């Protein structure tokens, strides 16, 4: 397309790369602003995901008049079989911010502000009968790149960075599905995948809520809650952190997952692939202990919220709208950021 070649000399830098392709920072001459252009690999499945993303972004844009919930699409075009999507330029992802900050946790008051916005964006999508299915810190972007430095009370010789603004937006809608579509396949990035997805029980809106729970723990601790690459170990980690999986869920498990279950319970540690795997599970603390190690105030409300987001039974999890009414967000006792 002519427009892209015309703007080619205005490519500033590569902002990111993934399996889908790459993202370039560019100057948009027409709008006179910096933009991010996602250039999708010329492969059928990535092109299809890009077309889904464009469709979802346009729908979200029609309903999100303020543009505060999700990244805004400016334009899109097909250039030599590469779908190119032009976005407003935002700051770093929460994951990149944590990584560049030595995986130091965020203060609980910042976690509250980020959590509130995340749940508002998820509630907004769910109201439109859309399920994101790939919520993770990499797909939540700070609006601004600016940060401040503050003393790190755990290591007085160091300072740590905090975002100057807590404003965030959701990105990456290539896996987003409508509520009425087929929900039997595997979704979500491994660490943020809900138990019903692993067990092949079908999934819906609550799979996004599970991911939000995992993300909030990661923001307050600096570390991924379920650092795993294998189903049985993942389920064993869940049991270690959250208690035993309900028998009724294990009994209904898909035949591909049956090998992980023996006599109505998880085949663990017998079925572990290695001793290292068993050690990795044993190293994990219970959820409330993990939070208490990190959070100096609001811990009780925060633990209660997390337990309500990380319930095994999808139907028992809070909805995004219910979560926003939880005392962790509404109580007057909070310190202000």
From TrEMBL:
Coiled coil: none annotated. The keyword ATP-binding applies. One of its GO terms (cellular component) is nucleus. Residues 9-329 form the Protein kinase domain. It catalyses: L-seryl-[protein] + ATP = O-phospho-L-seryl-[protein] + ADP + H(+); L-tyrosyl-[protein] + ATP = O-phospho-L-tyrosyl-[protein] + ADP + H(+); L-threonyl-[protein] + ATP = O-phospho-L-threonyl-[protein] + ADP + H(+). SUPFAM superfamilies: Protein kinase-like (PK-like). Keywords: ATP-binding, Kinase, Nucleotide-binding, Serine/threonine-protein kinase, Transferase. It is an enzyme of class 2 (transferase). Its EC number is 2.7.12.1. Belongs to the protein kinase superfamily. CMGC Ser/Thr protein kinase family. Lammer subfamily. This is dual-specificity kinase.
């Amino acid at each position: 397309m002519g427009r892209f070649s015309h703007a080619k000399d205005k490519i500033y830098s590569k902002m990111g790369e993934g399996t889908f392709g790459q993202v370039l920072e560019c100057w948009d001459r027409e709008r006179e602003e910096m933009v991010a252009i996602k250039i999708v690999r010329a492969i059928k499945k990535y092109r299809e995901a890009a077309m889904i993303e464009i469709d979802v972004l346009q729908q979200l844009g029609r309903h999100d008049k303020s543009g505060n919930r999700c990244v805004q699409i400016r334009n899109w075009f097909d250039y030599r079989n590469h779908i190119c999507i032009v976005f407003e330029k935002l700051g770093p992802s929460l994951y990149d911010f944590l990584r560049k900050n030595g995986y130091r946790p965020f203060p609980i008051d910042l976690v509250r502000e980020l959590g509130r916005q995340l749940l508002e964006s998820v509630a907004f999508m769910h109201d439109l009968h859309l399920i994101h299915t790939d919520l993770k810190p990499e797909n939540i972007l700070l609006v601004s790149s600016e940060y401040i430095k503050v003393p790190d009370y755990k290591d007085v010789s160091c300072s740590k960075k905090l975002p100057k603004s807590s404003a965030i937006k959701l990105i990456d809608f290539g896996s987003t599905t409508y509520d009425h579509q087929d929900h039997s396949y595997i979704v979500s990035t491994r660490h943020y995948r809900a138990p019903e997805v692993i067990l092949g029980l079908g999934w819906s809106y609550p799979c996004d809520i599970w991911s939000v729970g995992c993300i909030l723990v990661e923001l307050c601790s600096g570390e991924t809650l379920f650092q795993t690459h294998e189903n049985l170990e993942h389920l064993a980690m869940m049991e270690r952190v959250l208690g035993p999986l309900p028998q009724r869920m294990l009994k209904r498990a898909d035949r591909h997952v049956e090998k992980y279950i023996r006599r109505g319970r998880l085949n663990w540690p017998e079925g572990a692939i290695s001793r290292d795997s068993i050690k990795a599970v044993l190293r994990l603390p219970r959820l409330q202990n993990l939070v208490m190690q990190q959070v100096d105030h609001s811990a009780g409300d925060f633990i209660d919220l997390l337990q309500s987001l990380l319930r095994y039974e999808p139907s028992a999890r809070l909805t995004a709208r219910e979560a926003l009414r939880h005392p962790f967000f509404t109580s007057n006792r909070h310190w202000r950021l």
